[in-house]
Amino acid sequence: MASAYRNRNLLAVIGDEDSVTGLLLAGIGQINEHQKKNFLIVDSKTQVSSIESAFQEFTERSDIAILLINQHVAEKIRPTVDRYQQTFPALLEIPSKDHPYDPSKDSILKRVQKLYGD
């Protein structure tokens, strides 16, 4: 079982330009041998289908351990995010410069609260 997770050593990010740029400057950027990136910059022109496609791709890749997504971007594909139940890659909703974090919208936090009966 542990061998299935051994190759998961990348972070992926779906977010606005500032968030993605900051994380790329921190060193998370990677383009694999198939020219697939581990990041997607979302702006006002990005189609919801493109966000869902990137989410699907990142959650199916065997080399990604954590998927970071701006919470305001996650809201655009909320049903897809809420359906995601896998352990790996771990899904974390993060704030952005213009959109503060709202715990009441976080799918993982909602699931934890349900487990503890809050």
From TrEMBL:
Subunit of the V1 complex of vacuolar(H+)-ATPase (V-ATPase), a multisubunit enzyme composed of a peripheral complex (V1) that hydrolyzes ATP and a membrane integral complex (V0) that translocates protons. V-ATPase is responsible for acidifying and maintaining the pH of intracellular compartments. Keywords: Hydrogen ion transport, Ion transport, Membrane, Transport, Vacuole. PANTHER family: V-TYPE PROTON ATPASE SUBUNIT F, VACUOLAR ATP SYNTHASE SUBUNIT F. It is a peripheral membrane protein. Belongs to the V-ATPase F subunit family. One of its GO terms (molecular function) is proton-transporting ATPase activity, rotational mechanism. This is V-type proton ATPase subunit F. V-ATPase is a heteromultimeric enzyme composed of a peripheral catalytic V1 complex (components A to H) attached to an integral membrane V0 proton pore complex (components: a, c, c', c'', d, e, f and VOA1). It comes from Sistotremastrum niveocremeum HHB9708. It comes from the Eukaryota. SUPFAM superfamilies: AtpF-like. One of its GO terms (cellular component) is fungal-type vacuole membrane. It is found in: Vacuole membrane.
